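User: Structure please.
Assistant: Input sequence and predicted structure:
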Amino acid sequence: MSLQGITSITLTDSGDLYTTVPSITFSAPTTAKKPARLIAILNGGSLNQINIDSGGSYYEDGSTPAITIASSVGTTATATATVLNGRVNSVTLTDSGQGYMTPPAVTILGPSGNASDFVAVGYPNLDSATSKLTSITIVDSGDFYTSAPSILISEPQLFQPFLVGEYVNQDSASDGGILTAEVAAYNDSSEILSLIHVGSANNLGSFALPSTGKYLTGQNSGATAKIVSSTQKDTVDQQNFEFATEIEDILDFSEGNPFGEISKSTGLSS
């Protein structure tokens, strides 16, 4: 049975609608916890060496599990062990002992680690332009896997609706500053977002175009949506906009202005 860490990850589905990097969890190895097995080699009445028949599993790196060697009619042998990668990797005789007629039994303290200490770790790579995962980088390959582990990737963050009356911000307005606007309406069924008082936070009262491909963030709700297009409505101050945003899908806007069309003769909303 071969015990090892994972060597590669194949992404079978890139997912969609990820605006932030999701969490990823690997299942723990299922190998049973076992102590190392050691065999004494006798030379005359003394031990010549101690061979490692099995390094065991789930030992904590840097630990020195105690070794017990059966006594003899003379001097009992002693030895120390070192651990690397969760296994006993070397045994050093500190006293060869005397008076052994047959190879003595050698036992070692069992591992103190657990399977959870050897779980693989990965990092998902997100393409922000497509909101899809492109690959998973192995950060820690883990160990003691006898078969491929299962991998759980968290779902995209659910959309939090914008609140009417709250202000939204967007970096990189047309003037290079921060766009600010007030949410005038949000239709949950059609997913249409309409904003008024669109302007530059750097120069209050001035008009600034929104930037497509950038995210709007609600100051109170924390909602986020990426603008894929914008439509300027015919208003007195030219600061009313409707935005096609990408929230759970690419959103379309209705043709009508939810705030009323502007009267050309009076300059008032109908």
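The first strand starts at residue 24 and ends at 26.
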